[in-house]
Design a protein that fits this description.
The chain is α+β, with helices and mostly antiparallel strands. The chain has one domain: minor pseudopilin epsh fold. It has six helices and three strands. It has a three-stranded antiparallel β-sheet. A hairpin with a 5-residue loop joins strand 1 and strand 2. It starts with a helix and ends with a helix.
Length: about 130
C-alpha cells in the first residue's frame, strides 16, 4: 500500500512543463524553513542522494504548516513514522526510477528532477494540509 501512495504522490507532482520555483504560501514556508528556495534544493538533494540503497527523499509538512525534510528506506514514508508529518513532495531514489537514463549517477537524476516538479501541485498539497 505504501508503495502505491508514494508513487501516486511522486507522479502527481511531476509535469513536462514543471520546474521553476513555487509561489505563494509554499514559497514563504520554504524560505522560512530553509533560508531560500535554492538552499531547500541543496538540502533535499543531499538528503535524497545520501539515502543508502533504495528509498525516498521527502518534503513534508505538519498541520501547522512547518516544513520538514526527511528520507526513508524502501517503500516507507513519513506517514508511517507518526509525528504528523505528511509528504507533499517525494523523490524516488530507487534505482528503477533513474537507472535507464542516469545509470549510477543518482545526483544527476536528482538535479534533473527539479526541472519537472509541478510546483503548483506541490503547493496544492501544502494548502490542503493547512486546511485540514
Amino acid at each position: 500500500m505504501e508503495a502505491a501512495y508514494n508513487h501516486n504522490l511522486y507522479f502527481s507532482t511531476m509535469s513536462p512543463d514543471g520546474g521553476g520555483e513555487p509561489e505563494g504560501s509554499l514559497k514563504v514556508a520554504l524560505d522560512d524553513a530553509f533560508g531560500s528556495f535554492s538552499q531547500f534544493k541543496v538540502q533535499l538533494s543531499a538528503l535524497a542522494a545520501g539515502q543508502f540503497g533504495s528509498g525516498w527523499g521527502w518534503l513534508s509538512a505538519d498541520k501547522a504548516g512547518k516544513l520538514h525534510l526527511l528520507s526513508s528506506p524502501n517503500q516507507d514514508n513519513p506517514l508511517m513514522e507518526g509525528g504528523g508529518k505528511v509528504p507533499i513532495l517525494g523523490i524516488d531514489v530507487w534505482e528503477h526510477a533513474y537507472y535507464l537514463k542516469y545509470k549510477n549517477l543518482r545526483a544527476d537524476y536528482i538535479k534533473a528532477f527539479f526541472d519537472v516538479v509541478n510546483w503548483k501541485e506541490v503547493s496544492n498539497n501544502y494548502e490542503k494540509l493547512l486546511k485540514g
